[in-house]
């Protein structure tokens, strides 16, 4: 298949996944902000989202305070912020448009329809009417696109690149959500009061893992177990383990003569998680672990780009 | 209620495809007419709305140059088909074969021996100094001697059996996707009509095209790889490019997907470079190769011309076909047919004044309000004057442009183009139309029956181009001259 086609499919998938996870991250932050706490602490939560995406500079060029409303305006529908949900959905659609002949018409239409709908949205009614409903909509649309894609597309190389982009992006995004929230919550060091229960609950809900947690652990929520669930559980679909497993399998399916090194890097990262223990991860510092993980994901992305998407001939 | 009242009122003035001058329905439209009379108006209305939604949902659109960047418009579709009886089509088909054969012979000739120039049939200067004449092609042999693999011939009718060729399109003719989509839509909306008529199918066009492209691969290539080269997402015909590539099952490539190494064209794939043998290019000559033509082209492939001249890749259509569809060359096509084939032309040319000739210029300037004036290099309905439909001011403005550079223009009498009943705001009214069959040349010359019917939706307008507000109709070539199927 054409490298450019693979590139568009891969990015269509990454941007859709990114929009969804951004909605999840903003949603959990918003949910957490509903639990009473000092204003400074709350703004710290919103500021952390900007820092996580290296958007401080762009944000403060236009807003003076990182409070809930400003950050939501910036991250939800701002067309000039290339990391906003709006921009992600636009980029997903543009990538799909470029290869619509490769997609099934249902896949193209669901992607196009999502863009057409978000394009007509205004931020004021969203803020006034409850932002949660909007995030639900984003998650739903991402689910529709994913469902239609995997339900209608031929299971060939094209689908592999869609899959690869999705897994890689999700691995990165889960790590980010966990990193920023774990940090803000002071994972494991503070008093575990009622407020913490809600905070950890919100984090779990943001990755659709609240019920999963109950089912798996049948116990109170502890930071270490949350970390374990989102990092090491192979059966938790948004965990780093599950995502990495998908990346390794997909890379193997599409391997070509120049992709051996990328395959090796993916395998090494996977085995580190596959055979890892949460105590060791926490002992070395979760933040350090996640930062390193995100660097490795970036490295994999570069390898994929070089081996498949933009080969130098 | 007689929904055709407005149409009948006009049949004395223009030839109507459906109604004879006495207001009666022509035989090949009778079955359709009966069906329409029996079908409730609400059902028709519902079906028209359904067609609109379906076209929008699938995204069958085209971009209009000069409008808001990236804006896509829906091309209007009319549910009253244009019906052509079998005998009439047979005659047209013969004429189209003949014409395209002569055009290809002409291109082979002017890029090799130039017999036609030496015979003095066309002034040398008109060919050799034509901007569309590509010196790079002199002496280059192309597979099977075919230059124009896909030719769109625009036909209009002025009366009973009286067809004219309005122009030939030998560069990158477009519109064939609408022909196929219109048929799909009609079959979906009104399947019962297809049971009542024997309508020649057209949906196999992409298969014919692919087969045609494979037959003109460079010599010695066993299983040729065909690709479709598009200028990209922002091209007005991008929908058609994706459509054809998908239907043929070939890669849709952009210039940046291809590269040339040792006069061989490769595409960049996820499994490494793959050789390309035939390029169905939907990109103008000027943009094909920045090393040979426009230096600023970001759309082309450096080194493509060299690979092409070396016979390592086939371009369809060939480079330099524009010299044969130039409006200043058009008047000579009947002579080409006589010269190369020794036959009399089966299809008429529209009488054409060449304003480079002083006598013609004088006549045209004296008769502007009756004539149609076109730019020699123009296309898409841009840059033309339709005298009878223009204001005095528009005519005077155009006169100034002609006087400034007469050699850039030709003029033709305003043909009384035939009409076909068409749904418009006020009900059903006669609207002018043309027909663009797509003629495929490879080892043989072939075409699917019919083509794309374009209809000028504005009252009285003779310009059918989609960029000028034209719409389309499904085109039915009947296999039995319009007798009803025995089974129904």
UniProtKB/TrEMBL annotation, chain A:
Among Pfam families, the record links this protein to: Alpha-E
DUF403 domain location: 1-309
Q: Which InterPro entries match?
A: ATP-dep_Glu-Cys_Ligase-2, DUF403
Protein name (record): Uncharacterized conserved protein, Alpha-E superfamily
Instruction: Write the lineage as a comma-separated list.
Output: Bacteria, Pseudomonadati, Pseudomonadota, Betaproteobacteria, Rhodocyclales
Automatic annotation (TrEMBL), chain B:
Q: Which InterPro entries match?
A: ATP-dep_Glu-Cys_Ligase-2 (IPR051680), CP_ATPgrasp_2 (IPR025841), UCP005522 (IPR016450)
User: Per the record, a Pfam family?
Assistant: CP_ATPgrasp_2
Highest taxon of source = Bacteria
Family annotation (SUPFAM superfamilies): Glutathione synthetase ATP-binding domain-like
Q: Which residues form the Circularly permuted ATP-grasp type domain?
A: 81-456
Which stretches does the entry tag as region Disordered? 468-488
Name listed for the protein in its UniProt record = Uncharacterized conserved protein, circularly permuted ATPgrasp superfamily
Q: Which organism is it from?
A: Propionivibrio dicarboxylicus
The uppermost taxa in this organism's lineage are: Bacteria, Pseudomonadati, Pseudomonadota, Betaproteobacteria, Rhodocyclales
